[in-house]
Amino acid sequence: MQNIIITGASNGIGRAIAKKLSKKYHIINIDIIENKMDKVDFYKCDLSDKSKLLKTIEKIKTNIDSLYALVNNAAFFSSKSLEKQTLEEWENIISINLTAPYILSKEFALMLKQSKGHIINISSTRASMSESGTEAYSASKGGISSLTHALAITLSPDVNVNSISPGWINTNEEYLPTKLDNSQHPSGRVGIPDDIVDTVKFLLKNKGFITGSDFVIDGGMTKKMIYV
To answer: Over 101-134, what HEC string results?
Structure first.
């Protein structure tokens, strides 16, 4: 069974990806919090800590001899007025959202080349549009989108590297989107985790001609002109 690493698979979109892919692949979850899933191996790691991440990578390498895909999903979001943001918060978000994917891609590049595998980075529509107070998160996602095409060129033609930019994906099962929430989307509804899962599965079937691309999965919101 082919191995796939997913960061931040304990909750949210990452968990949905892990649960669906575990039917076909051996899933390795790297996260700071454990949320047990059948057929998923867990490695606890603070992705903001470079030394801990490198040690975790070495542990994983001792337990697998091949890797088919790396899904860089883990991310930390913060919204705070600019004057209240701290440099420490900025560095933490950049470390988790951008530096960790770079380290993981670099360290597993050889295995991925050998398997003719995939890197799938979970970016965000915030890479190209923002709300107030999200400087670090938006910057990190812009970086992920750029890292994607850089890696695609560096690792070509052996590894396909693409990114997915979700819009509003409702990962809170207790929240029911309102009629207004749904109607503002050209698709007629708010996104669900399976919308991202479907895109990941599509990319894993990619025969090699799709690389360096970003797939915006947002129900059409970034194409909708809004006048207030």
So the answer is: HHHHHHHCHHHHHHHCCEEEEECCHHHCCCCCCC
Asked if 203 and 122 touch (Cβ cutoff 8 Å), the reply is no
| Cβ neighbours around 92 below 10 Å, total | 17
Strand partners, 7: 30
DSSP designation for 223: G
Taking the C-alpha atoms of residue 61 and residue 53, their distance in angstroms, rounded to an integer, is 12
Per-residue confidence (pLDDT) for residue 174, from 0 to 100: 84
Edge-to-edge strand ranges of the sheet holding 69-72: 40-44, 26-31, 3-7, 69-72, 118-122, 160-166, 214-217
The alpha helices in the chain, defined as continuous H runs, are: 12-21, 50-63, 87-94, 100-107, 109-115, 135-154, 179-183, 193-204
The 8-class DSSP code of residue 41 comes to: E
**Rounded to 10 degrees, what is the CA torsion of 91, 13, 51, 111?**
-130
The model scores a pTM over 0.85: yes
23-35 confidence digits (pLDDT tens): 999 999 999 999 9
- What is the β-pairing status of strands 3-7 and 69-72? parallel
Per-residue pLDDT tens over the stretch 74-89: 999 888 899 998 999 9
Residues annotated as part of the active site: 137
**Residues 222, 128: contact at Cβ < 8 Å?**
yes
SS percent in the chain: helix, strand, coil, step 5: 45, 15, 40
